[in-house]
Amino acid sequence: MAFPWILQRYLFRETGKAFLLAAVALTTLFGLGGGVLNVIKLGEVTPGQLVRLMTLLLPMSAALTMPIAALFAAAATYGRVSADNEFTACRSSGINLIVLFVPTLLLSLLAGGVSFAITNYVIPGLFRNLDELIYADLGTLFQQRLNQPRGVALGDGIRVSADESVMDRLDPDRFVVRRVAFLQADADQWVRFGTAREIHLDFNRAADSVRVSGVMVGVSYFDRKQGQFFEESRQEIPPNEIPSLVQQEFKFLNLPQLLHFYARPQEWHEVRERMDRLRRGVARWMVYDALEKQWVEGPAHLTIADGRVRFSITAESANRSPSEGYLELIRPVIEEQTEGRTRRITAEKAVIEVPDGDTIAALTVQIKVEQATLESGGAALQRQRETLPAATIPEDIVRQVEALEEKELLRPAATPAADPLAKVRREAGDARGDALRRIVGTLCERAAFSVSVCVLVILAAALGVILRGAHVMTAFGISFLPTLFVLVCIMMGRQMSHNEGTHLAGLALMWGVMVIVALVDVLVLTRGVRR
Question: Distance of CA 346 to CAs 125, 321, 373, 381, Å?
């Protein structure tokens, strides 16, 4: 009984040495050779950051090279033993050849476990630290982007390039940019271009983002729409988020985070944005419904007020837009009280609407009048169009909407065709379903990859015995070709699992190929190796 143990220990030692040498060589070649750098496409790093970055990239290289190293070591070691007729001698001695694959089983479990840990914890941590590494030297990064032809994107569609930027010694998140050229775009068209003497920028570092805001000083620009040049002493730049080096995607999350978002998909940023938009839509329609009810019960009278402004409105008639929800008043008379000032506005038409905002609490009721007369303090002004001060929506509506559960928000209306929020509701539901499918696909992809390492290492060892793969190229072919087939199936299955129509088919493909390889392992071990 001691003889098989001696052989097992010998095989484990030889396989382990080959595995370590192959893993170190492949990891060094792939990591330091730039393979991983090309994968993540970094172009804005300093030499010092690059040195620190390489210490983070080696674990990522290991996740890609360790499975190949394990397969190569198993195929080469067992192929050499088979080529030396050592398996023939063992069989002649009455030793069960299957027990000699115990070292391969241990190596496969080790390689699979390490791959599982790296893909679920190390690599997500690496990508999470990339932003911290790059943005730690925010001044250098910002200066590099300023010197590029595309410059830096700021708020309100402004993109700037500059000759220099100076960091405040007392506050590292405050910059002064001098000799600036800027371009301002609206959607896909540019609307202004010009220069500024200075731009004062403030960076606000959050947990997962960096936002920049500021003010331009000494601005000269050409307005394309008006066809004129203008000069301003100051122009505010609203806050804008600097694009993250690594976008927030499921493939960059670790296992606990994936499980967290699977249990609470509404917290994922894409779903949260859709759900917040839906909540704001519900709040807006609740405000419109309340205004319409007040008009009917008034009768023909509206009161809109918050702690700052109060409107008392009468009109000849009111119509509500069936698709947008806003109220349109014909020949309204509006009494406005704002901070102790009283105005009387008469107009041909007024529109009461609730524009969309960033949050529910930030929603406001706005009144826009046309062909209006504004009377205040005995003076009267004529205005073709005028937007009156905005009033915040009622707090009770804010509380009601915030208290709505996800199921209530996503529940379709009794008559979906007449539901003005049907599209928004459908988009929110689709975003939630897409997030769940991607989470499941990512979890299965990582698990299938780790399991594939286990079954492929055993297959490589068995094929090495049958084909006597002692030669390096033979061992490489034995380890590479089955791996390529399995990885292609896993990647195809992952892509299919992200789509609603092929979700189950994608999962079946990923795990089906695992079952096929496992059956091939059993067949090769029980029939091929024994013969």
Answer: 62, 22, 5, 11
The whole-number pLDDT of residue 1 equals 46
Taking phi over 0 as left and psi of -120 to 50 as alpha, with beta for the rest, 344 belongs to: beta
CA distances from residue 488 to 235, 431, 485, 494 in whole angstroms, order as listed: 54, 27, 5, 10
Q: How many H helices and E strands in the chain?
A: 14, 15
Domain ranges of the chain: 2-135+435-529, 139-242, 280-404
Does residue 322 contact residue 288 with C-beta atoms inside 8 Å? no
Residues contacting residue 338 through CB under 8 Å, at least 6 positions apart: 308, 309, 310, 389
Q: Is this structure's pTM higher than 0.85?
A: no
Rounded CA-CA distance 232/128 in Å is 42
Q: What three-state secondary structure class fits 406?
A: helix
Give CA torsion, residues 29, 34, 39, 41, to 10 deg.
170
Residue 118, both tokens? 């790296």
- What is the model's pLDDT at position 41? 44
Residues 6+ apart with CB under 8 A from 73: 15, 16, 18, 19, 22, 107
Q: What order of strands is seen across the sheet that includes strand 189-205? A: 152-153, 158-167, 174-186, 189-205, 210-223, 228-242
pLDDT score for 302: 92
Question: What is the DSSP-derived secondary structure letter of residue 388?
Answer: P
**What parts of the chain have a pLDDT lower than 50?**
1-2, 35-44
What pLDDT score does 50 carry? Answer: 59
Residue 304, pLDDT score: 92
> What is the DSSP code string of 227-278?
TEEEEEEEEEEEEEEEPPSS---GGGS-HHHHHHHHH-GGGSHHHHHHHHHH
Per-residue 3-state assignment (H helix, E strand, C coil) for 33-93 = CCHHHHHHCCCCCCHHHHHHHHHHHHHHHHHHHHHHHHHHHHHHHHHHHHHCCHHHHHHHC
Query: Of 275, 380, 369, 257, which is closest to residue 315 (Cα–Cα)?
Result: 369
3-state secondary structure 271-309: HHHHHHHHHHHHHHHHHHHHHHHHHHHCCCEEEEECCCE
The residues pairing with 314 across neighbouring beta strands, listed in sequence order, are: 301, 333
